[in-house]
């Protein structure tokens, strides 16, 4: 437990899929006036250095956000097409964290959410992070925002911490709204079962909340079963769902003895905004064209409920 550090992976293809889906969802939710509670059950450190020690060794952003930025924004680049609005919005956000132009900082999900929440309308952001070092970094990064009580960081198990927050408190007009991101490291295989149990409980407590789950697509029965279980849970609760996957395929420069690393991941969204499917329908093929590498590359998008 606790050997996972997101800094090694920040800005990789999985973060790109996750954060584009998160932003497209938040943009829609923020168009409605009533305040909203945002929860990130597995928040990470919040901000990551793309030129730091961790990424120097991992370098996964090179095949993710750095490649995407170069394809659409680099001086002299000949983009494949105009970027899909969801990709454009994401690249704008990343550029905002890097005003000098060079990509040095990558904002994790807490900062993606914080950037899109409305401060005057009493939106609240609740962050959970268990790792002692990443929890401390997150505390420090959030403190710099001087966001007061609108953003809270808790060093607690995010699965357990979520439950007392549901249903969320009513807005001034009486409506209750929440978006929850569940993004574990799946370092221990019990995380898969915990995600299912957590979603089951959360949807029971607050059926109209938007719940987003990230998961790795890897040859492990638990990983394979998770989206199937989430579909079943959503269908049983009669809630609409959206399921998107992005596989960048194998790196053709890797030798047979190299560790392949993560090549694919998925996002499962319960109660997605009605605009999300169209946003991802435009974005996913472009992500595949830019980030796809070799054998096994592909993308899928399904909705139901
Ligand atoms: N959501 C982040 C983002 O998109 O920027 C990345 C999160 S990373 C994949 C998962 C994080 O969950 C790690 O930082 C890990 O330390 C933390 N973690 C692991 N188990 C946890 C638990 N039960 N509750 C809260 N955090 C946990």
From TrEMBL:
This protein's encoding gene: rlmJ
Subunit structure comment from the entry: Monomer.
Sequence similarity: Belongs to the RlmJ family.
GO molecular-function terms, A-Z: 23S rRNA (adenine(2030)-N(6))-methyltransferase activity; RNA binding
Broad class of enzyme this protein falls into: transferase
PANTHER family xrefs: RIBOSOMAL RNA LARGE SUBUNIT METHYLTRANSFERASE J (PTHR37426)
Tagged with keyword Cell cycle: no
UniProt site positions, description: Interaction with substrate rRNA: 4
Active-site residue numbers: 183
Any Gene Ontology CC annotation: cytosol
Annotated source species: Hydrogenophaga crassostreae
Protein name: Ribosomal RNA large subunit methyltransferase J
Function: Specifically methylates the adenine in position 2030 of 23S rRNA.
Positions with a binding annotation for S-adenosyl-L-methionine: 19, 42, 109, 129, 157-158, 183
């Amino acid at each position: 437990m606790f050997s996972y550090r997101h800094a090694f992976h920040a800005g990789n293809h999985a973060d790109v899929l996750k954060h584009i889906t998160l932003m497209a969802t938040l943009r829609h939710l923020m168009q409605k006036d009533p305040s909203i509670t945002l929860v990130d059950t597995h928040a990470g450190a919040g901000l990551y250095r793309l030129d730091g020690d961790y990424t120097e060794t991992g370098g996964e952003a090179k095949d993710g956000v750095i490649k995407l930025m170069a394809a659409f924004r680099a001086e002299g680049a000949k983009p494949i097409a105009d970027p899909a609005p969801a990709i454009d919005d994401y690249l704008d956000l990343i550029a905002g964290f890097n005003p000098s132009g060079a990509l040095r900082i990558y904002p994790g999900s807490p900062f993606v959410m914080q950037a899109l929440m409305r401060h005057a309308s009493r939106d609240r952001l609740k962050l959970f992070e268990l790792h002692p070092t990443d929890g401390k970094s997150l505390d420090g990064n959030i403190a710099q925002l001087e966001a007061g009580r609108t953003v809270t960081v808790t060093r607690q198990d995010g699965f357990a911490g979520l439950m007392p927050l549901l249903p969320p408190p009513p807005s001034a007009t009486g409506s209750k709204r929440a978006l929850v991101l569940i993004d574990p490291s799946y370092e221990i295989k019990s995380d898969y079962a915990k995600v299912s149990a957590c979603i089951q409980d959360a949807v029971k407590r607050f059926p109209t909340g938007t719940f987003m789950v990230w998961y790795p697509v890897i040859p492990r029965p638990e990983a394979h079963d998770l989206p199937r279980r989430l579909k079943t849970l959503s269908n049983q609760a009669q809630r609409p769902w959206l399921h998107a996957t992005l596989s960048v395929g194998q790196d053709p420069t890797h030798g047979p003895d190299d560790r392949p690393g993560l090549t694919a991941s998925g996002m499962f969204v319960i109660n997605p905004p009605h605009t999300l499917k169209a946003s991802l329908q435009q974005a996913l093929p472009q992500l595949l064209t830019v980030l796809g590498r070799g054998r096994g590359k592909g993308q899928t998008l399904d909705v139901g409920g």
